[in-house]
TrEMBL record, chains A, B:
InterPro entries: Amidase_Cbmase (IPR010158), Bact_exopeptidase_dim_dom (IPR036264), Peptidase_M20 (IPR002933), Peptidase_M20_dimer (IPR011650). Zn(2+) 1 binds at residues 70, 81, 179. Allantoate binds at residues 204, 264, 277. This is Allantoate deiminase. SUPFAM superfamilies: Bacterial exopeptidase dimerisation domain (SSF55031), Zn-dependent exopeptidases (SSF53187). PANTHER family: ALLANTOATE AMIDOHYDROLASE (PTHR32494:SF5), ALLANTOATE DEIMINASE-RELATED (PTHR32494). Zn(2+) 2 binds at residues 81, 116, 366. Coiled coil: none annotated. Belongs to the peptidase M20 family. Binds 2 Zn(2+) ions per subunit. It comes from the Bacteria. NCBIfam families: hydantase.
Amino acid sequence: MTQLLDLLDQFTHQHDQNRLVYNQDWLANQRDLIFLGQRCGATAIVDDYGNVYLDFPGQINDQPVATGSHMDTVKYGGRYDGLYGVLGGFCAIQQLYEQHGIPKHPIRLISFSEEEGNRFLAAFTGSKYYTGTLQIEKLLDNQGITFDEARRLAVTQLQHLPYVKAQHVALPVTFTELHIEQGPRLAQNNKKIGLVTGIVAQNRYEVTVHGQANHAGTTPMAQRQDAIATASLLMTKLYALAADTAEDLTFTIGEIHVSPNVSNVVAESCRFTIDCRANTNDQLMTFVTKMLQLLEQSKRTSVIETLHVPATRLSDDLLTQNAALATQMNYSYQTLFSGAGHDSQIMSSFVPTTMIFVPSEAGISHAPAEYTKPADLLTGVTLLSASLFMQANGE
Amino acid sequence: MTQLLDLLDQFTHQHDQNRLVYNQDWLANQRDLIFLGQRCGATAIVDDYGNVYLDFPGQINDQPVATGSHMDTVKYGGRYDGLYGVLGGFCAIQQLYEQHGIPKHPIRLISFSEEEGNRFLAAFTGSKYYTGTLQIEKLLDNQGITFDEARRLAVTQLQHLPYVKAQHVALPVTFTELHIEQGPRLAQNNKKIGLVTGIVAQNRYEVTVHGQANHAGTTPMAQRQDAIATASLLMTKLYALAADTAEDLTFTIGEIHVSPNVSNVVAESCRFTIDCRANTNDQLMTFVTKMLQLLEQSKRTSVIETLHVPATRLSDDLLTQNAALATQMNYSYQTLFSGAGHDSQIMSSFVPTTMIFVPSEAGISHAPAEYTKPADLLTGVTLLSASLFMQANGE
């Protein structure tokens, strides 16, 4: 069982986790995963968006049960978000085959290309492509490289690896995603396992305040169109609005871009992002309506919606099955709602989907301090392995 | 008299004005200026900070009268800020020698290396080095290049040009700086010439708010240390404080830097700059005291002063002389106070110093839209030429 820890080390040799989709580190890891799967007897498949599928055989050659997560990270993220579900999924499958031999149905490990939306203004592109729900505009990263350019360059290299099949594959019969919680509840409640009932509704926006660049010393205050003055007031009002809204709403301004961003020049423009989430679509829409009204009152301010993901209810049946297994294996667990978006959110519209969480120390995630105890990582893998065994040997 | 317009074109062949100190465009222009001066009989001198001096002969070989300005620009600035004083100064000297022959005293044209403080966190480094008042810490630009590294690389190339003297030269007996107003007053009052009585007091600060990077969806709002939430509230309060203070105070937040600057990550840190100016030191200090008190109340917030320049009174004698010349030449003029900092502010502590302004259309500066009518540019040059003639033939 040290295999998981060794694999996590091997796949995170870089100190900063910067596997932005289609970059060099991302490519190296998807390639290494393909080699790893092929060495263990899996068929490796890569679709045109760089999703990697490792298909392990069943006694009957029908549609597989699947597990997995995403290979990309946020910029300067942690070691576990996404990667744990890919490598932990791999280890769970290995454990199953070693302990029980070939199951009735095949098992598929999926390493989705992209989920975080950090390189381009589009998130969940891997699972959305897989499920046929991706609509993508022309997107540029901050180096001016288009999504399609980056995608083709990287995916071609993966698809041309030996014995790799380049194709779009059919959906599995179920999907189970193993993931760190990314919040503090399991750790605070001293539980080993979280079983996810549903996933938050999530919208993202990009707000741009337009001003007029001018000299910081000679332009009278009354004659300025200072984009930062307007934007900071807007941001303050938005935070206050969020604080006055439903308790479980999260509201985050994570990115600010100023032009020309020079200390002695009145700002020409100030662009910032909004990430807001709530447990129900109604809660989120109530906030969003007020938020857009507030932004509309500001002159020279434009707003673009960059992400809209409705709240999702995951499979009750799979959750009940996993709860029974956890009880049987003597793992303390609780059911919870996920404040983070996940590929499971996309998958769940098409196949019965469930998620297994393990604790995040201090609830920290999307940061280098992200940490889960090795014993907790292994507990998650063992439960996943038992769950996959049940699913792959069922009717 | 089309020489000035041709020279401005030649020296601003790039669409964006990005002559940050010691960069390639800066180097090309200082080099071209040296060649230009040498072709017209000037001795070219370059000191260790890359200030370029073109010394034109007088009948008596004593200390020169001087004119000039700075060669650097702000990022994405305009065509005239700094450069007009250098090339306009050159044309004024040419006009003087052509019309009147060699004057009694020598004349020096100075092209200061740096005034804007845009590449490194230090401004006026050219004139401060010339006057022996520069104290410089180890500074890095946003590529991680040190000030000293950049300086040595660029200056060595200038100092090794043919017939260039590499030395520190003594101060001139007077200094006259020709500059665009960078504000709207001359244009609004329909005046051709501004004669500057003094220059604002100016302080700059860098404020950093420290937070804790975390997941934008899973971290409960009450448990966050969101650097942008704190910073935007601070910025809003600072703008309000500035609005409540003296009428002629200017207050600008021009730069914001967020880390990690990712839409779905709570910000780890948010750093912003403050540029504040007032006509008197007392007015500025009254505001700064309140400002620092406000910032001190904010936890996890640190403040560094990056620039402190007291208000300056320029030479009354030189202004009176220039006013008489303007009247004689039938140029409408007004006296005014400068809201922009200038090399003259540094020079005036050591030698009698004056400034001649020409109108800025719509008062726009530090932006690509910066514009002064050709006729107004030439009026400034003609007045400067007459002023230098008086000064270089006086006692």
